[in-house]
Amino acid sequence: MAGLQAGAPTPTALTVHNQSRVLEIDFSDGASFRIPLELMRVYSPSAEVQGHGPGQEVLQTGKRNVTLQELEAVGNYAVKPVFSDGHESGIFSWDYLYHLGADQDSLWAEYQRRLQAAGVDRDAPMVQAGGHACGSH
Description:
By secondary structure, the chain is α+β, with helices and mostly antiparallel strands. Helix content is 25%, strand content 24%. It contains four helices and six strands; from the N terminus they run E-E-E-H-H-E-E-E-H-H. The strands form two sheets. Strands 1-2-3 form a three-stranded antiparallel β-sheet.
């Protein structure tokens, strides 16, 4: 399971900064990241965002000002954020948070590319797709 690999870095400190909208996280290998909450939200590992397979991702928009209402521990391997827009189905393992922090420049670039390809602004309101009922959200 992700986040439980032997020797993988684990968090030593985790601080939510809702005013600046970042999650500050320090890892046992000395790495330290300030992950924008918007980045976490648009790359949530939930099926609602990622879909159920390649090509089923749902482009997230209007998340620039999202904050965290809650951050629940999930065992010793992850956290489950509750975002201010109501999204709460993503479980962020330690290795996924490390990935978001370490690769945020390339993830932002990919997000910008996807927005441009869709002809949508990052601040556009989300358009709700109708009829999807997979039961995993």
